[in-house]
Amino acid sequence: MTLASPPRFAHDSEAELARILDYYGVAWRYEPDVFPISWSADGVVIESFAPDFYLPEIDLYVELTTLRQSLVRKKNRKLRWMRQLYPEVRVKLFYARDFKALMVKYGRLDFLTGVAAANSAHAVTGNGNGVRG
Amino acid sequence: MSLHDDVEVILLDSQTVANRVAELGAQLSADYAGRDPVLVSVLKGALVFLADLMRAMDLPTSIDLMEVSSYGAGTETSGQVRILKDLSKPIEGRDVIVVEDIIDTGLTLNYLLGYLADRQPASIKICCLLDKPARRLAEISIDYRGFTIPDRFVIGYGLDYNERYRNLPYIGVLKPSVYGGAPPDG
User: Fold this and answer.
1) Which residue from B28, B51, B79, B186 puts its CA 20 to 30 A from A116's CA?
2) Which CATH number covers residue B28?
3) Which chain A positions have a beta carbon within 8 Å of B180's beta carbon?
């Protein structure tokens, strides 16, 4: 971790991934870059993509999508645009199943239970947490 | 209740694994002819692969074992990887072959490679039985690869879930109901 204090994560799963990366000594930055992906006719950016993590040692952006399927579709669409507009930028999308698999691998089933509860709350309130970018 | 009952599907049967391990052993024997590499494995998952691979190699090899802590439920938020069991002999000037059962995120191996490199071996190569690249979070260059597998939770041939299933003779996919009740979605 390159910051003096931890950033304010939008989702618990992001904080958990940050802890995993810290544990294994992998440098990361949280949402360091914003990539414009669509513009209005007069050139104003109307949509952008800000991947959750950047891993400088391997020049890779990581985006977590652990919420509802409709939001996953939105992120998939953004990622397609991202790859067309910035083909040199490497982005890895971590779906809910990927994150679950990580938690199973690390014996963090307790964390999964908490994430599921939080996601249910988000679904009810529709606060859109985790759909930045 | 048999261990096999928890297996959704056999991904690689024992004969397929044995054939590939023999091929890897032959390849390593050719590539390291005239040298005496040390095979370094990480406990515990790679033990079965290591045992079979070393017997498939016609070389004067030696082995060493390490154990490293894993991120998990008991991890403190400020925790870091710890070496639980270090190499028993120096590897300075030696040709090291890291023998791994599976490379998934690559995080453990990435840490280990740095640790081993600091001990100034003559060379370090990686031999893994299973490469699961879908969730890779570290840049790992695999020199000898048994199989590239899809993103499934695999067990057997040394691989475990909660310390079980290591003794299955094949590599199978664990039924999701065993570790969470429902297939992962998303």
Assistant:
1) B79
2) 3.40.50.2020
3) 100, 104, 109, 112
Specify if B25 maps to a domain. Answer: yes
Cβ contact B83:B51 at 8 Å: no
DSSP string, B73-121: TT--TT----EEE--SS--TT-EEEEEEEEESS-HHHHHHHHHHHTT--
Choose between A33 and A96: higher pLDDT.
A33
Q: How far apart are CA B25 and CA B52, in angstroms?
A: 9
Tens-place pLDDT, residues A40-84: 999 999 999 999 999 999 999 999 986 666 778 888 888 899 999
Calpha distance A122→A130 (Å, rounded): 10
Best residue of B71, B80, B111, B185 to probe chain A, by most A CBs closer than 10 Å? B71
* Nearest C-alpha in A relative to B112: A24
Q: What is the mean pLDDT of each run of 10 residues along chain B (186 residues)?
A: 92 98 98 97 95 97 94 69 94 98 94 96 98 91 97 93 94 89 43
Task: State the ipTM, two decimals.
Answer: 0.84
Rg, C-alpha atoms of chain A: 15
Rounded to whole angstroms, the Cα distance separating B78 from A71 reads 32
Q: How many domains does chain B have?
A: 1
Whole-number pLDDT of residue A127: 28
Does residue B73 form part of some domain?
yes
Query: Rg (Cα) of chain B, in Å, rounded?
Result: 17
